[in-house]
Design goal:
alpha/beta, Rossmann fold, N-(1-d-carboxylethyl)-l-norvaline Dehydrogenase, domain 2, 9 helices, 44% helix, disordered C terminus
């Protein structure tokens, strides 16, 4: 009999995860609250439904639902709600949380929802839609577990069955922290580039030439400054990190810089005009005073 896996949340991360698991010979079911998302999963031959009672009990549950900010604070209710559903379906299953969460979430779920019985691991996703081959479901990942039994089952599922290389964190809290920390780090890197661009343009200097000059040094890699830090993950995750620490001056500053950079771009856009003499855009005044 085939091992059964259920992927909960069939969005940008969940659907590729379900397909990857199916490709490795497991029977896969998908669950999502969105009809259109479920239809998309069905179109690529994943058994999926919006009705939880139609999902058969599984051996492994992989949670890929979105987590959000509410009033600028982490909101983990979607994870708890899903785990409440799972415990009513199969208490002896392996549960893997791939969604981004704050440290302490899995431990609370294990104690309050699973009552210390269900095996629980955290394997945060690193999926990048821009390059699903190199940075898709199969890439170096981190795993943390609530106990040794959970870790053993998690390694068997991810490494032996799915052939995904794993770094074993010393605790599940370290695995939880690693995801938000790596995204916050990326946010800070981009924010530095944004502030440097503002400084360069205030001084009438070429930012790109400055960036390229700096990047000739072996241990420097200043990123591009584009249109502000957008998307779902980076802006959310840096605020997750900021919300759980007291000494968060750098990460709070990075958020302020990104907001300032977006205002800088808006002001710059408003001051670009076309003159009869040149017929090309030019800046009529300094974007910042």
């Amino acid at each position: 009999m085939k091992m059964k896996a259920c992927v909960i949340g069939l969005g940008q991360v969940g659907l590729p995860t379900a397909l990857y698991i199916a490709e490795h010979g497991l029977e896969v079911w998908g669950y999502d609250i969105s009809e259109s998302t479920v239809e998309k999963a069905k179109s690529v031959e994943i058994e999926a439904t919006t009705h939880w009672n139609k999902v058969p009990p599984a051996d492994v549950y992989v949670i890929c639902v979105n987590t959000v900010l509410v009033n600028n604070k982490p909101d983990m209710r979607a994870i708890f709600d899903v785990c409440e559903k799972i415990v009513r379906k199969n208490k002896s299953a392996l549960v893997s949380v791939e969604s981004t969460i704050v440290p302490g979430t899995c431990r609370k779920i294990h104690e309050s929802v699973f009552k210390g019985n269900t095996s629980l691991i955290h394997v945060p996703h690193r999926y990048w839609v821009g390059d699903p081959l190199e940075h898709g479901v199969k890439q170096n990942r981190v795993i943390g577990a609530v106990n040794e039994k959970s870790l053993k089952q998690g390694l068997w599922f991810y490494e032996d069955q799915l052939e995904i290389p794993l770094y074993v964190a010393s605790s599940i809290e370290v695995a939880e922290m690693s995801k938000i920390a790596e995204n916050a780090y990326r946010f800070v890197q981009i924010a530095f580039a944004e502030e440097l661009k503002i400084i360069c343009e205030d001084l009438g200097m070429d930012f790109e030439d400055t960036r390229r000059a700096c990047n000739t040094k072996w241990n420097i890699e200043i990123l591009e400054a584009r249109n502000g830090i957008e998307g779902h993950c980076l802006p959310k995750d840096i605020r997750y990190l900021a919300s759980i620490g007291k000494n968060n001056f750098l990460i709070e500053g990075a958020v302020l810089i990104d907001n300032a950079y977006k205002r800088f771009l808006m002001k710059k856009k408003k001051t670009v005009i076309t003159t009869p003499e040149y017929k090309t855009p030019r800046i009529t005044e300094s974007p910042r005073k």
